[in-house]
């Protein structure tokens, strides 16, 4: 029997909880092996698991607030509408990327957000989007930083309304 899956279905069946950035998440996988701090780049302040991945869900009323990570993050599209990623890099370049099932419309099934790039996400089509996020080394909140609103507004004055909407409040 086919069941129409909505955001509530995924939140329940993937045992998701609220994410500090917005939306919901649940851990999918994490390595039981560690990279010692001495073998990692200096930006890491401790040992890390080799990799980690989560399920991440946004509904159309939520945004993934602007933030940046110390590690490249691989995004994988799974279900729902279209997710728009907003990326603001150190070279004052703004990029938008749409993730979804329609590759004929230049939507991505997978996308890499480079470390150090301020980024955010929102649903632009449909009621929700379910994606996965994978990192190596594994995610740690020590490697997460909320975006600096004044700095972004200064670097990207043409996008001030967008930035203000996507900043954590």
What would you say this structure looks like, in words?
With 169 residues, the chain is mainly beta. The protein has a single domain, classed as Jelly Rolls (Sandwich), CATH 2.60.120.10. It has 3 helices and 11 strands; from the N terminus they run H-E-E-E-E-E-E-E-E-E-E-E-H-H. It has helices spanning 7-13, 149-155, 160-166; strands spanning 17-18, 24-30, 34-35, 48-49, 52-59, 63-69, 73-88, 94-99, 110-113, 118-135, 144-146. The longest helix is centred in the N-terminal third of the chain and has 7 residues, at 7-13. The chain is globular, with a radius of gyration of 16 Å.
Secondary-structure-based class equals mainly beta
Tally of contiguous helical segments: 3
CATH fold naming: Jelly Rolls
- Can you tell me the CATH class? Mainly Beta
- Uncertain stretches: none
User: What distance separates the N and C termini?
Assistant: 42 Å
The averaged pLDDT comes out at: 96
How much β-strand is present in the residues?
Answer: 35-45%
Any chance you could write out the topology, listing elements then pairs?
Elements: H1 7-13, E1 17-18, E2 24-30, E3 34-35, E4 48-49, E5 52-59, E6 63-69, E7 73-88, E8 94-99, E9 110-113, E10 118-135, E11 144-146, H2 149-155, H3 160-166
Antiparallel strand pairs: 1-2, 2-5, 3-4, 5-10, 6-10, 6-11, 7-8, 7-9, 7-10
